[in-house]
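Hey L., structure's done. Input below.
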Amino acid sequence: MTDFVTGFRAGSRPDRTVTYLPEGRPAVGLTHRDLDRRARAVASWLAASGMAGEPVLLLYPAGLDFLVAFLGCLYARAVAVPAPLPLSGSSRVDRVDRLLRDSGARMVLTDEAHVAVLGDLSARTFGEGASPDPWEPPDAGAVAYLQYTSGSTSRPRGVEVTHGGLTHNLEVFRRVSGDVPVRRIGGWLPHHHDMGLVGLQLQALHAGADLVLLSPEAVVARPIRWLRAISDHRVDWTVAPDFGYAWATRRVSDEERAGLDLSCLTMAVSGAEPIRIATLDAFTERFAPVGFRRTALNPGYGLAESTLVVTCTSRGRGPTVRRFTPASLAAGEVVLAPDDDGVPLVGCGEPGDLDVRIVDPATGAGVADGTIGEIRVAGPSLAAGYHGDPAATRAAFVTGPDGRWLRTGDLGFLLDGQLYVTGRLKELIIIRGRNLYPQDVEFAAREAHPDAGRGAAFGVRDADAGEHVVLVQEIRRSSPDTPAGFADVVQDAVTRRFGVPVSLVVVRSNTIRHTTSGKVRRGHMRDLFLGGGITALHSALSPAVATIVATAEADRA
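Output:
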């Protein structure tokens, strides 16, 4: 298989374009051939600067300059390190400082508009007009870039994605479209996120498709911009997390929807966070009047340690939904429920070019189909490991008689060839032998009250009784209900739904911490809860949880 870099350099076409749609300004674009030419100039400049094999931190706003710089790094065999611009909030600045230290980056590249702002980082733009770069195809095992994980359960780690792994995963994802070549890919996910980088930008280049990009901030502010770009530019492939589809469903008005034509969209990939059939159903119902088809939905599963995609539903199939009895999910052995009853789970596609195995997390032994266990993955898409962290690499990437396998830390099961994902192993809450998944608790809370925003569910443990469920739940600022009244409704609904006591902390909007891709940082919220770092509007804690909190306060004193 021709590697991605060599393939794009040789096959870049003047009739394929990359277009960025800035808000309030004219669109800007490059042909694939112009993109290749500019990337060659960057590569020549990086090679002359001695950056082959060295990490280069890329701090760019949404737009085309990032893609030019990223390809230039790959061409020069420098190690690209995509990162978010540290322009708003101390947490983002701290994150970039950590990435600089962890990656060992010797150079920071940005666009001209941000050179002065990032002066403390010695940021620079690349030289233009350089001579053509001397070309040597990259080694398949060489590190192409560091994909820093979003840190939903731990500190961010730099995943070492190789040139061979990138090429293989792009081809795995391309095959999801079947025999119909993709014509135009469009979306808004950040380029420093694996789904935005690989599933959106690089996939378009690999497939020889047009690419239409939007600013993540602009789409979050007004999601109609995303759907209007699909409609106006006749996009047939888009990607977004569950949050993106839910946000568009809620925030696009009837008047805005009336001007859309989404009949062009044949692949709407959903991934990067737990997939809710309620979200997909609501999106379909909302936009079916303007041409959107349910068969265009493509639920998938992946993670940075496998470059991106592990499984994804093929074009035209639509989501596979099965319902299971709550008791069987809690026990770890799934049992199908009647059609209109039970807990619905969405299939994430069939394993194809990557091997997927479900194992007992404690022993590593394989389990039967329909049994919940840890998801493990093997194949050429796997990353080399975690940058500068051999212990974490050994723990996550295990080698045995049957090859090298990634321990994903995710729980799920295989049934009738489909992969179903149920949650994170580290976030699983075990109450008297029952397995509770935090995302199910959070979803039940959102359904219980119309003014419920984001929530974070987690377990806290005492020495005697084991784990207890805590839910930190946002209430929308516009709610006419009091925090105490809101808490009564939500707590009663969630407790009845799961049959266990649930301690509830009501907080204002924008309190729940989440990653750049929208995943709830449950471990961080637990630490804030026990560390006294949450400002509560109302708390309704069980005696056991109140004792745990009081003990934590005494330990801090």
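The mean pLDDT is 90. The CA atoms of residues 133 and 288 lie 49 Å apart.

-- N.
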